[in-house]
Amino acid sequence: MYKAVVIGGGWSGCAAALAARKAGAEVVLLEKTDLLLGLGNVGGIMRNNGRFTAAEENIALGADELFNITDKCSRHINVDFPGHKHASLYDVIMVEPEVRRLLIEKGVEIRLIARAVDCTYVKTGAGKHIESLTLADGSIIEGDVFIECTGSTGPMGNCLAYGNGCSMCVLRCPAFGPRVSITQKAGNEDIMGKRADGAFGAFSGSGKLIKESLAEEIRQMLNEKGVAIIPLPKEEIKEEKLGLKVCQQYALPEFAENIILLDTGYAKIMTPFFPLDRLRTIPGFENARYADPYAGGKGNSIRYLSVAERDDFMRAKDIDNLLVGGEKSGLFVGHTEAISTGTLAGYNAARFLKGLPQTALPRTLAIGDIIGFARERLDTEEGLMSRYTFAGAEYFSRMKETGLYSIDTYEIENRVRREGLAGMYKQKFC
User: What domains sit in the chain, N to C, each tagged with a CATH number?
Assistant: First the structure.
């Protein structure tokens, strides 16, 4: 057996751990908090727009397990809201235990409250090779291959410098310590995404309200339809907030002119922040309350401050045994994107352990194309100001233009088969 060490227990980290384990590797997953925090504790949107295509590609490739869970935990399916069609809205309260049980069942060792703060590496002829990680408690984790899925948010000082300060996001830095970039600790310089005005980072695109704090008619609308759209009075329309958002697929006039809520167990409010005193002036929101510990009236986490240079194998630049996934691997938005990149990183980590050549997904698949396209765009100033998601903005337009977007599951399965990749992620070779 071989040891693969995954750093970060969000969607990409869990996907990487699962993929490496399915291939036969011994896997340990390190998470700095007390739960697999990145698993949609604010999110909950799947299968909207091109994410449907990507989900079905993953399933055809053999990475079906996590999508089966989000489908199982969906409160609503085939939901349309401004700019988005056929979305599934999963219950963010239910999904984390389900994923944790799956990983344990598969034999992944999960270590919680295990924050990686440093690494040791040696220089090789081809670059660098990581030997071990140091955790916050001083313990050492040795491994043969490492997968960094720590995201690109924070730490708190960055949220203050580029946002409105710490809003106690899912990272919960005050409680569990800040995120640390392992690529930087290994001597690489991370890339920072930019906003249209040149400022670094971007506000996370949503928050969550306690559903029971809203008026009965709003709760009923959410429970029955999955979405509630409440027009804002003219004085509360702040179009400039659209440019602050990570999620450019929601940078549409409708999201400035209305409060748009989605039912993900909580009421997901599709705005980076909305001051509570002003929110309570809107009919139906008189008793509104953000879910603790989020300071959703002040701001949200600042993301895209720590993106690694990598190749299309998901391997970090000049480090032979470090792969990356999720937001660490590019200016990606969304859980589907995190699962897609994390799964490939985990699969290639297992191939590395066995001495097999690394695999890149072909550009004839939406997953392979977004991985390559996002990497290419990091080399341009314009590309640093863009975000890449199957669900909207620049990349979804590209999907439609190139014919990659489809909701025909048979056609999607066939495109994977034509490439000879059906069930690729089910292979066990370690």
Answer: 3-197+302-426 (3.50.50.60), 203-279 (no CATH)
